[in-house]
Design goal:
The structure holds two protein chains of two kinds. Chain A is 42% helix and 18% strand. By secondary structure, chain A is an alpha+beta fold. Classes of the chains: A alpha+beta, B mainly alpha. The interface between A and B is medium-sized, with 33 and 36 residues.
């Protein structure tokens, strides 16, 4: 029989309290890589809207501009119109396949180095350290009672965080309007309400996600770890604890002594240590040597981890592969005179081979496999296709639609008139004059709503303002004799030196009898 | 199935208490931020219910303390749109209709407004595409009974066709030559033959020759010596390819015997002057619009010296054949 206690079950917590993480500062090659990437990505983010690009008098001179009001996207010399949105779609597909490629090759490198959440969290962590000190000082401060010093530190920290958050939200809006103008407007309080609302929202999200929630975003909110985890295979590069080298762990270098270490993993380049029995002796009598691993269970890898995980438990959802544990472990390995990279970038396949005493393939050689090559080919193919389309696209576009009510009109001289709505898109940032012509219809006369039948000719001229769509109604009259539905082709040709033309197919309709 | 909760050894978390095929579910608690978000949503909903319409009742819904409603918002947007359009309407009210094409932007605005008004008042007879039907003129073509320049179209719209009690209306009535005994049935057939020769539908014949004489005696007063019609009387051109009622023998026989004359309401007292101008601009823009030719230099001088006289004074045209 169950006791009442058993039936009630253990007391449940309503929520899972967050275990606060105090990542320790660390230096090393991956830390320096993170610094560099942080500098590059933040510079790109903050500086890009301020780059100028001369596009002449009829277009904005901002290098990168998402001009929602005029439905244009400017990126240096490239100008994307709404109907060319497939370029953006192509870029998104390339970004997706690029992520597959990166993930299958080097694991979650995006997470660890380039993801905005990682970059800003890293920035916030550095600010925190500068004010509150490193890990131990932060833990002490956390436990300390509230007093003037603690309040001052906390206020300063959150103040600087908020400043960074405001700058982040503020920089975002400059991508959508002329940056210098908008900056002046924002400062003077004359900017549109949408600008202030955007700043407020992005300030809030940056502060909350980057400063307060940090690794919780990566673990609970972000779908990427799940997707990327599914895309990894045993040949993907991951941050890996070399269990075959580290286990069994032991506390303290002195107690175990280097003598007990496995001879087969003795680094060839390591200096011989005083008092070590010869390798020959160890090799001759391996069973009698108590074997211990390189891991001294110092927890340095856990202390530096920004998501607070223990990498020695294997690949897990909290690991963003930032490599800081590698730096931390390398420092310890150097101190105890062991070869570096007890934790390192490696593949599961290589570690399995190494664990069995085999010679692992160089991780970089793992990159070249069918999966990565296919991803690269698809990725590059889309890129080349888009570049080709970009290079050959015309900046003049014709679109003809027939008026279908009525489909045709009989004129007093017995001929038949069709009406078309013609739209000419001038995607150059200067006004152009174009000529609209028609082929496939004999003895046709053409005029538009600015003229009349008396002024009809074989073509119609039209002035199209810079960066705009001109719309005109075109009337085409032709003899009543002929097929009830005749294919015609409209052409538009720019009349200036640069030229360029486009065509559009349509029909000329006649009544059944042709009379 | 085990109904007892227990602590899972590996994770230290309690299970929810059921098990299938050895698989148990851990009762992992939600993260605190998730709960906070959940409660914040509940608070948001409560505030929303107080501020905005929310609970459906029998005949209406709770109003909310802000007093917002979708109908109210629509009314506000309609008012805003009216304010936006006001300058265009004022400019249209000032401009003389024949000078409207000089301002292409205003003309385009008038055509757009006219298109909308046409779909309300005119499609019943002239069709959605203004192509008309038997007895109702096609406004797209280049054939006009009363004239096709902006000013003339506007006057037709203002005063209508054959509207009793309107001095300025378009007025003319074709006699019923057969029914009233002016022409004998055989003579009607001769006239029909001649008219079909005029429009190149038949080859010249003996009947047509007889018809020519009858035509000269009875029809030229309105249709002109060559049968090209007269706009003063709204008399159609009989030589072109466009027939309002049809150009075949039977239809023409019916037309000559019993006569035809259509009517159109006068819109001047039903629609405002700006809408009239917009409608005229739209009809003119359909492809058959004619250029405005001032009647006399004196009229031009009068029009220029008095720009306020935007609405033309219609001339009475009560012409009885």
């Amino acid at each position: 029989m169950s006791s009442p206690d058993d039936l009630a079950g253990p007391k449940q917590k309503l929520f899972e309290a967050r275990t606060k993480i105090f990542p320790k500062a660390v230096d090393g090659s991956f830390r320096r890589l993170k610094w560099a990437l942080m500098a590059v990505t933040l510079t790109i983010y903050y500086v890009t809207p301020w780059l100028r690009w001369d596009r002449g008098p009829y277009a904005p001179d901002q290098a990168v501009l998402v001009d929602i009001a005029h439905r244009r996207f400017f990126m240096f010399s490239i100008e994307i119109w709404p109907h060319e949105f497939y370029y953006v779609a192509g870029l998104l597909i390339m970004a997706g396949i690029g992520l597959f490629l990166v993930t299958s090759a080097v694991g979650r490198a995006w997470c660890g180095y380039a993801c905005p959440q990682t970059v800003w969290t890293d920035l916030f962590v550095h600010v925190e350290r500068a004010i509150e000190g490193d890990r131990n000082a932060q833990i002490r401060l956390q436990k300390a009672p509230w007093g003037p010093a603690k309040i001052a530190k906390r206020v300063t920290k959150h103040g600087i965080w908020l400043l960074i958050a405001v700058a982040t939200g503020g920089a975002w809006i400059f991508y959508f309007d002329d940056a210098p103008t908008l900056f002046g407007q924002v400062v003077r309080g004359e900017a549109p309400i949408a600008a202030y609302a955007t700043i407020a929202i992005l300030t809030g999200t940056t502060y909350v996600l980057g400063g307060l929630m940090r690794e919780q975003v990566c673990v609970y909110m972000c779908p990427w770890p799940r997707i990327q985890g599914a895309m990894l295979d045993e040949k993907s590069l991951l941050v890996t604890y070399k269990y075959w080298r580290g286990e069994p762990r032991t506390h303290g270098l002195k107690r175990a002594g280097p003598a007990a270490r496995r001879p087969e993993v003795q680094d060839q380049g390591a200096e011989p240590q005083v008092g070590i029995p010869s390798l020959v002796a160890l090799a001759a009598n391996p069973e009698k040597t108590p074997r211990i691993g390189d891991c001294i269970d110092c927890n340095a890898c856990v202390a530096v981890c920004p998501t607070g995980i223990d990498i020695r438990n294997g690949s897990q959802i909290g690991c963003i592969t930032c490599g800081l544990c590698i730096d931390a472990c390398d420092q310890i390995m150097a101190k105890i005179g062991r070869p570096p990279r007890l934790i390192g970038y490696s593949t599961i396949a290589d570690e399995t081979i190494a664990g069995e005493g085999g010679e692992p393939m160089h991780p970089l050689r793992r990159l070249l496999r069918l999966r990565t090559i296919l991803y690269t080919l698809v990725w590059a193919g889309i890129g080349m296709g888009m570049l080709f389309a970009l290079g050959t696209r015309t900046r003049i576009d014709l679109s003809v639609s027939q008026t279908r009510n009525p489909l045709y009109v009989r004129l007093s001289d017995g001929s038949i008139r069709n009406t078309y709505t013609v739209k000419v898109r001038n995607m150059e940032n200067r006004p152009r004059e174009v000529e609209i012509g028609l082929s496939g219809l004999t003895r046709a006369a053409m005029w538009n709503d600015a003229g009349s039948r008396e002024t009809a000719g074989s073509t119609v001229r039209l002035k199209v303002p810079a960066d705009q769509v001109a719309r005109t109604r075109v009337f085409v009259a032709a003899p009543a004799q002929g097929p009830t539905r005749q294919d015609v082709t409209f052409t538009v040709r720019a009349l200036d030196q640069e030229g360029g033309q486009d065509t559009d197919e349509n029909f000329f309709e006649r009544p059944e009898t042709g009379q | 199935m085990v109904e007892r909760k227990r602590i899972d050894d590996k994770t230290g978390t309690s299970t929810v208490g059921h098990e299938w095929d050895g698989i148990e579910e851990l009762d992992t608690p939600m993260p605190r931020w998730w709960l906070i978000t959940f409660f914040a949503s509940i608070v948001f909903a409560a505030v929303y219910v107080v501020l905005y319409p929310a609970w459906p009742l029998v005949h209406s819904a709770t109003a909310g303390v802000l007093g917002w409603s979708s109908r109210g918002q629509l009314a506000k947007e309609v008012a805003t749109e009216g304010t936006r359009k006001a300058p265009i309407e004022q400019a249209l009210a000032r401009v003389q209709i024949e000078r409207l094409p000089e301002n292409s932007e205003l003309f385009q605005a008038a055509v757009a407004g006219g298109s909308a008004a046409f779909k309300v008042y005119c499609v019943q007879c002239h069709g959605a595409g203004a192509a008309g039907t038997k007895g109702y003129p096609n406004l797209n073509d280049d054939d006009w009974l009363w004239g096709g320049d902006l000013k003339t179209i506007q006057q037709t719209l203002l005063n209508g066709i054959r509207q009793p009690g309107n001095d300025a209306t378009r007025m003319s009535v074709m006699p019923a030559f057969g029914r009233d005994g002016i022409l004998q049935p055989a003579e009607v057939q001769d006239v029909v033959s001649y008219v079909r020769v005029l429009s190149h539908q038949e080859k010249p014949s003996e009947a047509a020759r007889r018809g020519a004489t009858l035509f000269a005696n009875n029809c030229v007063a309105c249709h002109g010596p060559q049968g090209k019609g007269m706009r003063e009387f709204g008399a159609p051109n009989l030589t072109d390819g466009i027939w309002l009622y049809g150009g075949d023998r039977d239809t023409l026989t019916e037309t000559v015997t019993n006569s035809r004359y259509g009517v159109m309401p006068a819109w001047g007292h039903r629609l405002d002057p700006v809408t009239m101008k917009m409608l005229a601009a739209y009809v003119h823009s359909l492809g058959g619009g004619e250029a405005f030719v001032p009647e006399t230099p004196a009229a031009v001088a009068a029009a220029t010296s008095n720009p306020e006289a935007a609405t033309p004074v219609a001339q009475p045209r009560n012409v009885q054949p």
